[in-house]
Amino acid sequence: MSDDLFYRRLTQLRMAKGVSARDMSLSLGQGPGYINNIENRKGLPSMTVFFYICEYLGVSPKEFFDDGNLYPTQMRELIEDLHALDEEQLTNIQFIVKGLKKQKLQNFS
Fold it and tell me: Rounded to two decimals, what is the model's pTM?
């Protein structure tokens, strides 16, 4: 992952959580401009602070770096819920998801 992608992902996940850079900075015990400085490419967090950032955002480090996963918290919760279903229920969910994907593609055509 390039540095540029790191900065974009941080901004994306912070905005998805609906918090300002200032509020996030203060919640992490940093100065008010800390996250803003990171998002503006003026530095990178230490490894320790990176783990705090992940915890604050509700994502694992793996989920943080999975830029193809726009909704990591929801995806993790969905997968946890899917583990409780039987084979028939999973097949039904799979059918629904495929139908939703097909509908989305048709709407963009």
Answer: 0.77
The CA–CA distances, whole Å, from 56 to 1, 2, 30, 65 equal 21, 22, 13, 15
Same domain flag for 42 and 76: no
**Spatial separation of the C-alpha atoms in residues 37 and 89, rounded to whole Å:** 47
Task: Tell me the pLDDT of the chain averaged across its residues.
Answer: 92
Within 8 A by CB and 6+ apart from 85, the residues are 93
Amino acid at 15: M
Same domain, yes or no: 13 and 57: yes
Give the 3-state secondary structure of residue 12. Answer: helix
Enclosing domain of residue 40: 3-65
